[in-house]
């Protein structure tokens, strides 16, 4: 599986990853007939939701850092 899809990094989607892997293990014909599409769509939705959570967390951290930097520059400008 793709390195970014390791279960240790995406614990919330672990069951869906396992289900997709098991579906793929059934063979080429099973995959080519679209029998794994539902599992793949569910996994994609789960990973998208996890990525959104991470991005939201990172954005709030960036906003806090920018506020600190602005305050530091404001202090420098006032004290010079």
Put simply, the count of helices is: 3
- Tell how many strands the DSSP assignment holds: 0
Most strands sheet: none
How much of the sequence is in beta strands? under 5%
Overall number of domains:
1
What fraction, in percent, of the residue positions are helical?
Answer: over 70%
Family: Belongs to the CMC family.
Organism: Podospora anserina (strain S / ATCC MYA-4624 / DSM 980 / FGSC 10383)
Function: Required for mitochondrial cytochrome c oxidase (COX) assembly and respiration.
Keywords: Chaperone, Disulfide bond, Membrane, Mitochondrion, Mitochondrion inner membrane
Describe this structure in words.
It is built from three helices and no strands. With 80 residues, the protein is an all-alpha fold. Helix 1 runs antiparallel to helix 3. The protein is rod-shaped, with a radius of gyration of 21 Å. It is found in: Mitochondrion inner membrane.
Q: What attributes characterize this protein structure?
A:
rod-shaped, 3 helices, mitochondrion inner membrane, chaperone, 80 residues, mainly alpha
